[in-house]
Specification:
heterodimer; A: about 170 residues; alpha+beta; Alpha-Beta Plaits; 2 domains; 5 helices; 6 strands; globular; B: mainly alpha; Serine Threonine Protein Phosphatase 5, Tetratricopeptide repeat
Chain lengths: ~170, ~850
């Protein structure tokens, strides 16, 4: 008999963000070239996620070091590569990273056992990733960091205080 | 539509729901057929939902719920293929994923039998197929669980029912045990038998006590005997110090507990009799009095040769943290409840690793699934339990839950999942029910800490790793002051070693200043000021260091990425000076300078040092072939530079091994040779990590070669090449283990030169000398175990057996094809191939 759906959810599924990203890309592709519509089954991106060995790790403190990340994530298997997310302009850590393992199983285990636990006293988020490419290590926010840090109106000492856009607003008003 | 929707997502059950159903049956004829079809389409979805939330609450409600689900299934069973399949699939999946519910799920089928015997019969057939499939795959846990489901259906069956399978399994176990003294599959089979019996006997009116007694008499020989392989799984092998308990095999305990239970007339108080549970609704029970249909037990053929399954099997040791208390908070090992509960808890934990939150929820709500009043109320404080002792059960559900998790975290030789799973499971349980779990966890930690002296070193390290990681999830809060006396002990005492190691691991996950803040003042000196430095000092900055000038030159050259020639010039200058000072291997001081510079430059982060190593890898790769001693100097220089952050050193050494700049043997010889000294270094947990990690890398590789060798359809030349590689690498692996063993023998017996000299000169106290011998013993035991485990997987006879088994399987398929679709006749041809395959297998 084939695979039967589990009776409780699995924690090693890609997030809706990544799943939607796949859908978005597929949608764009289909719109770009209508003739490709026949190959609906599996896009290359979906294939990549199927044996992904890389994880996106989010909600890190800016001050968390490679060594700390290594110490935690090596609990799920030997780490092949660790790429720190950097502020596009200042080239300093901006609160995310990519962890690449040697095997897909290690990446899945990491989703199950490390995602949602704490590192450096912050609950971190992990997501399966299609694989690191040069350029993705930089924040895409207007001021160089991650977009989510632009508009945050809560103070987060681990991620540079208030959101930068919010901060600007304050200073303009004053 | 409205009423369907409200039932699909609501949890309303009982009369309300029944009334609705009756109403709808009456109404159905008036409805437009289109709508009715849509409703039918959704019935399987409703069934899935109903089954998934079934039995989540206390026992009394579950009986009503079971009747209701049974009614729903009976009514719609033949509506559509999809409905039928959903019923089979979800029940199947619940059996193997949520084994707590097996007696409850069986009660559904018993209720179905009251209504429609022929539908119930289909569930029985399906259960038998599921069991046989698992049996053929060698999926022993699934086997056990499907068999348990059948056992709970025993009231259905004519005659001996499930016992026919148990007898057959026992015969196989005896064959396996007779064939080899190393056999563990036979032990597993006996365990499955013993864990099935109570579920059969718990069913009222089965009248099989005599049959059970007969079988128990037979299993006694296998279950009660000691087995050599048990030495590999003993959590407390130490001979000096207080042991929390002597080794207890799960199998031996089960046998004794069942015999005790037999003499009590199979009371089996904890197993819930869901189907027979008394409800306030007396009417309901009277309606069942019309004798339900009986069924013949399905024919189950046990395959001629049984598969070991994917993973090697080791016997289970019984591990408990809550023994030796004045109040019993977990079932005593004399009570069958201890093994029954442990078994299903362990299965739940290991099966649900893909959702730790769900697993934690089961652990916390485990009392739902057993006879009411088996436990005290959840989260009852330990002191309160003392007060109520004598008036009822004193078993704390959270103690049982944690006991089971730790039994898996501490399972030898290896746990089923990565250890971090059990870490995250405990974290999750603490988050879900802090008031219940945290105090029990505290008692668990204190218990383990008290018995560290005799604990296996592998487990001491697992405990340290877990503890530091756990605290990192809870603001590093721990009542350190209660161990303040222990920090006065010798640095070699296991308790002191544990404290120091845990603090080091906390620092690795955080940073020194933060961890110091969490400690009482008397601990502060344990975290030296130098640990706070992100960049350790560069020793050549001090002129007192030999070759200081050259060291600094080298540093500036490397910093500005100078040419190889320029660098070589400085290195040559170090070597000339060294030769003048009478150093025989001049590559040693120059390597020291070079590596120290690389470490210092790369101290900013791991990726910095890695890119520096990458840039210099040609020079680094050339060191080993010219001088083995200089190669080992690389390790020494890395470890010395990172002396305050040994975790970083271990990491770097591991990367250098990946680059093949270091070899496994060089690391081992450095660790248990060059640096052994008095042997006190063996108490350093980072050294165990370094050696253990190196050994793991080697054994993984050999296992991979074996796996590749077992691939089907390899061309002859590839097969031969793999065979040669295997022989060579396996020998290298054995050599590695034997080097460790030799060194540890010396330390354990107190005859290694370093220790003898130090004791003679008074540099080492007698007491510390004894402690070092204990560490030597611990290392020896741990690595001897690793070596033995690898032999069971990649040793010559293990590989031959696997090749033979694979051939037999292939032949079996061929025979099946030749015989058409009939599934018989596999027994004899397989035996033939078994023997012929053995000799030739390594040559083809």
């Amino acid at each position: 008999m084939g695979m039967i759906r589990s009776t409780v959810d699995r924690l090693d599924k890609p997030s809706s963000y990544t799943a939607n990203k796949k859908r978005r890309q597929k949608f764009n592709r289909e719109r770009a070239g209508g003739e490709e519509e026949k190959s609906r089954e599996e896009s290359p991106i979906e294939d990549k996620l199927k044996d992904a060995t890389t994880l996106y790790v989010g909600n890190l403190s800016f001050y968390t070091t490679e060594e700390q990340i290594h110490e935690l994530f090596a609990k799920c298997g030997e780490i092949k590569r660790l790429v720190m997310g950097l502020d596009r302009f200042q080239k300093t850590p901006c609160g995310f990273c990519f962890v690449e393992y040697y095997t897909h199983q290690d990446a899945l285990d990491c989703m199950k056992y490390i995602g949602g636990t704490k590192l450096d006293e912050r609950v971190i988020r992990t997501d399966l990733d299609e694989g690191f490419v040069e350029g993705r290590q930089y924040g895409r926010g207007k001021s160089g960091g991650q977009v989510r840090d632009e508009y945050r109106d809560e103070f987060d000492p681990g991620r540079g205080g208030y959101g930068r856009a919010v901060e600007d607003d304050y200073s303009e008003r004053r | 539509m409205a009423d369907v929707d409200s039932r699909a997502n609501g949890r309303n059950r009982g009369h309300y729901n029944n009334r609705k159903r009756r109403q709808r049956e009456d109404d159905s004829d008036d409805r437009p057929s289109q709508i009715r079809r849509r409703v039918e389409d959704q019935q399987h979805m409703r069934l899935r939902k109903q089954l998934l939330i079934f039995a989540q609450s206390a026992l009394k409600d579950s009986k009503e719920e079971a009747k209701e689900v049974a009614g729903f299934i009976s009514y719609h069973f033949n509506d559509s293929e999809q409905f039928k399949q959903t019923a089979f699939d979800v029940i199947y999946q619940l059996i193997i994923e949520q084994p707590f519910k097996i007696p409850f799920l069986a009660s559904i089928v018993l209720h179905i039998n009251e209504r429609k015997g022929e539908v119930a019969a289909q569930f029985i057939t399906r259960a038998a197929v599921n069991f046989t499939t698992a049996l053929e795959k060698g999926a022993w846990r699934d086997c056990k669980l499907h068999l348990r489901f059948l056992a709970c259906l025993q009231p259905f069956f004519e005659g001996e029912g499930v016992f026919s399978v148990l007898d057959e399994l026992f015969n196989r176990a005896v064959d396996l045990q007779t064939a080899s003294s190393d056999d563990t599959l036979g032990l597993e089979l006996v365990k499955i038998i013993l864990l099935t019996i109570p579920y059969v006997l718990a069913q009222p009116g089965t009248d099989l006590a005599a049959k059970a007694a007969e079988l128990l008499e037979k299993t006694d020989i296998v279950a009660s005997a000691g087995h050599d392989v048990e030495a590999l799984v003993n959590p407390y092998p130490g001979s000096t110090g207080e042991k929390p308990f002597e080794y207890q095999s799960m199998l031996g305990l089960l046998q004794a507990q069942l015999q005790a239970e037999a003499s009590k007339g199979w009371e089996l108080a904890v197993i819930p009799r869901v189907y027979w549970a008394t409800t306030p609704d007396a009417e309901a029970s009277s309606s069942t009095s019309t004798a339900p249909q009986k069924h013949a037990f399905p024919t189950i053929t046990v395959p001629a040769s049984l598969s070991q399954g994917d993973e090697p099997i080791f016997p289970a040791a019984y591990f408990s943290l809550y023994t030796k208390q004045d109040i019993e908070t977990v079932p005593p090992t004399s009570d069958i409840a201890s093994c029954l509960l442990r078994d299903v808890l362990v299965d739940t934990i290991n099966v649900l690793d893909f959702n730790r939150v769900a697993a934690a929820k089961f652990l916390i709500e485990l009392d739902n699934y057993w006879t009411p009043d088996t436990f005290v109320k959840r989260a009852t404080q330990f002191d309160k339990v003392k007060e109520i002792a004598g008036t009822g059960s004193t078993w704390k559900p959270e103690d049982l839950a944690l006991d089971a998790v730790f039994s898996q975290l501490f399972r030898l030789p290896t746990a089923e999942h990565k250890l971090v799973y059990y870490h995250s499971l405990i974290t999750e349980a603490c988050k879900l029910a802090p008031a219940a779990i945290a105090p029990s966890l505290g008692r668990a930690i204190r218990f383990i800490f008290r018995h560290l002296e005799t604990m296996d070193i592998e487990l001491i390290n697992r405990f340290m790793d877990w503890f530091a990681h756990h605290l990192s999830n809870f603001e590093f809060r721990w009542k350190w002051s209660e161990w303040s006396e222990d920090i006065l002990r010798s640095n070699l005492h296991p308790k002191k070693v544990y404290i120091m190691g845990s603090l080091d691991k906390e620092i690795r996950l955080s940073f020194a200043k933060r961890i110091r803040e969490t400690l009482p003042p008397e601990y502060h000196h344990l975290i030296s000021v130098s640990k706070e430095k992100d960049t350790p000092d560069f020793k050549y900055a001090d002129d007192a260091t030999p070759y200081a000038t050259e060291g600094r030159q080298l540093l500036s050259l490397l910093r500005k990425k100078a040419t190889d020639e320029e660098i070589q010039e400085v290195i040559a200058s170090i070597q000339t000076q060294a030769a003048e000072h009478g150093v025989t291997d001049v590559l040693i001081p120059s390597t020291d300078a070079y590596i120290t510079c690389l470490c210092f430059i790369g101290s900013k982060s791991l990726s910095h040092v890695l890119s520096n190593i990458d840039r210099s890898k040609d020079r680094l790769l050339a060191i080993g072939p010219s001088s083995e001693a200089a190669r080992r100097q690389i390790i020494g220089s890395v470890v010395d530079y990172w002396t305050d952050h040994p975790g970083t050193a271990v990491n770097l050494v591991d990367k250098l091994l990946n680059y093949t700049i270091l070899t496994p043997m060089s690391i081992i010889q450095w660790a248990v040779g060059d640096r052994l000294g008095t042997g006190s270094i063996l108490a350093e947990n980072w050294l165990y990590d370094m050696v253990g990690g190196t050994v793991r890398k080697v054994t993984n590789r050999v296992r991979q070669i074996v796996a590749a060798r077992l691939e089907n359809d390899l061309p002859h030349d590839q097969m031969q090449m793999l065979e040669e590689t295997l022989v060579r690498e396996r020998d290298a692996q054995r050599e590695l283990f034997s080097v460790i063993d030799d060194a540890m023998n010396g330390v354990a017996q107190g005859v290694n030169d370093g220790a003898m000299e130090a004791i003679a000169s008074g540099d080492l106290s007698q007491e510390d000398g004894m402690l070092i011998r204990v560490w030597g013993e611990k290392w020896k035991t741990a690595f001897a175990r690793k070596a033995a485990v690898e032999e069971t997987i990649v040793g010559e006879s293990a590989v031959m057996e696997k090749i033979a088994a694979r051939k037999a399987k292939l032949q079996g398929i061929l025979v099946d094809i030749e015989n058409g679709d009939e599934n018989n006749g596999t027994a004899e041809p397989m035996d033939e191939i078994d023997t012929s395959g053995l000799g030739a297998s390594l040559l083809d």
